[in-house]
Amino acid sequence: MTVSPATLAPALLVAVLLLQLPVLPDLGTLWLLGTGALVVVAVLIRHRARASRIALLALLLLPLRTVYEGSLWERQLLPESCEGQLLTLTARSIGLARFYEQPDGRLWRSRLSIETISPANCRGPRRALVYLPSKLLGELRPEEAEALEPGSRFRITARLRRPWGRVNPESLEGERAYVTRKIHAIGSAHMLRSLPGRDDAPARLNRLRAQLSAWLRAHADERVAPLLAALGVADRRFIAPETWEQLRRYGLTHLMVVSGLHISLAALPGWCLGYLLSRLGNAGEPAGRILPVLLALLGAGAYTLLAGATLPTQRALLMLLFMSLPRLAARSACASRTLSMAVLFILLLDPLALLGASFWLSAGAVALILWLSACSAPRRGLTALPRLQLFLLIAMLPVGLFWFGQASGPGAVLNLVAIPLVSFCALPALLVTLLLATQWETAALQLLDLAGWPLDLLLRLMEFGDSIQPTQAMLELNTMTAVLLLALAGSCLIVLPLGRGALIAGM
Description:
Blueprint: H1 5-19, H2 27-44, H3 50-75, E1 86-102, E2 105-118, E3 127-133, E4 153-161, H4 174-180, E5 185-195, H5 201-219, H6 225-233, H7 241-249, H8 260-280, H9 287-306, H10 311-328, H11 335-349, H12 357-375, H13 384-395, H14 397-404, E6 406-408, H15 409-436, H16 441-468, E7 474-476, H17 481-495, H18 500-506
Parallel strand pairs: 3-5
Antiparallel strand pairs: 1-2, 1-4, 2-3, 4-5, 6-7
Helix pairs in contact: 1-3, 2-3, 5-6, 8-9, 8-10, 8-15, 9-10, 10-11, 11-12, 12-13, 13-15, 13-17, 14-17, 15-16, 17-18
């Protein structure tokens, strides 16, 4: 079964438009729509090949599954009649709790998986974001209230409300974040009591991440330790607000978020090791072909777990897996069709990803790389990477303007230095450091200094940029969508090899 980009595009468009409806249809209506659509498609594909039938069926399921997930989220929202009431919850902590400094102490925000809720008429929410003042955590961790233990069970008395976005038109729409993360209620806790609970795999994984983060912050230079924790185990809690604002001004926040680029780079050492082992062992087919790919996927999967196996990292890993399948099967495949299949599969698993920026940024970057490869002759050596970086920076600029409303002019230049500095210098040394931290701490500490100096250099470059230009030139999108379309057209003319005339027109 293959799906082309031209076939996938209408399904994506319909799914996106359906999510913009003010009220999504209920589940009964969806069943009727699905049955009717199946009958129509059965008639249309009557004389087509079997593979085409399966492909069209999958494309039909995408809009229906998207609306189903959106309707399910609406059904699981906290009932309006329960907003502001004191509710009693039995819940488990998910992931690492975040904290905010307040005049009277830290305010913790924990993501909870709700097991029971009372009174009974308020049942429905499955996940909630709950804010807890430090005084409530004394019973749980009297020796140090640094974090809520991942996987812990509590009985909480809290006031909850339905999640809604910020009203400020200049800010990002908050409700989209709640939908993509499947948050059904937010609120604050007033009483909390710990309960006995089982120790499951996600809880053990998040405790390992917390321990590695604490080790990094204890042994690395305090200037770069929060950045190392963010890059290594996706723990961004300890990055100072002024540092994060500085990264945002220069458009470098993507480097401190575990992205598809980082997942792919984590796969590279595994691939090299597999290639070396197959050569040393004189392995023939199929071991010589399969071993590098399997070890590469193993390395990418391990880093995905270290990053908390969040939805964006899972999507990156799945996309890498799909792009590797033709190699494993010893078959040639069109890269664009493989990418379309990966996108379709990812969205069938998590269709609400359409509302988030991370899906469009990662899928768009891969599509643009394939487009560049198809439109120009391949290059090797030191000129290939800067050319690819410059292409992505220009081509992704309109996408960044659309999602975030602004983009940094000086940051585009700094990205050319920062991306290889962080991705090819800091990240490999940091991953090896974390691998050795529990077994050979002396060697790990030596590598930790090697992983820290690129980040220290990055901070110094940003400080130098602030000193020569305190107010950064920011491109802002506050006009009509036509500006975005013109920017996209100009980007295409600049980055594609269409001659000098197209380059001048694009600029």
